[in-house]
Prior knowledge:
Blueprint: H1 3-22, H2 26-39, H3 43-55, H4 59-72, H5 78-89, H6 93-105, H7 112-125, H8 129-142, H9 147-159
Helix pairs in contact: 1-2, 2-3, 3-4, 3-5, 4-5, 5-6, 5-7, 6-7, 7-8, 8-9
Amino acid sequence: MDPKAGLEKAVELFQQAYRCQMEGELDEAIRLYRSSIECCPTAEAHTFLGWTYSFQGSYEAAIEECKKAIAVDPDFGNPYNDIGVYLIELKRSEEALPWFEKAIAAKRYCCYQFAHTNLGRVLLEQGKIDEAKRSFERALEYDPEYLPALMALEFIRQRGLQGL
């Protein structure tokens, strides 16, 4: 298959996989994401395959797919943030910090507010209130109505939390 046809087929399979994932047909989504990757490996397909694994609670497999995504396109921010989230789910928050920082530094990322908020969550958990607050405020610079960041700042305000 020529590269252009491979990419077109990969995109078509990716779109089908995403629809299946959103409809809860996770095994079919996994099959389709893998088929997409066979046609033409993309950072998006690896990342979304990882996301699907996370829906099944397979966080280690999800992390491995995100690492493959980074190998394909180190400028794509989503897999960095996703690895951080999966590490939080695995109760390894400390390990998540550098992944959120890499997402924030990524050149190609649609949702910087996610990484800033997730970084803030870990900092808040660590008792680094002022740093957490700054992270939530930075998230709002990207999306002033991003509810998780707004709720986190309200949580800090209501509890009168102060930095150490």
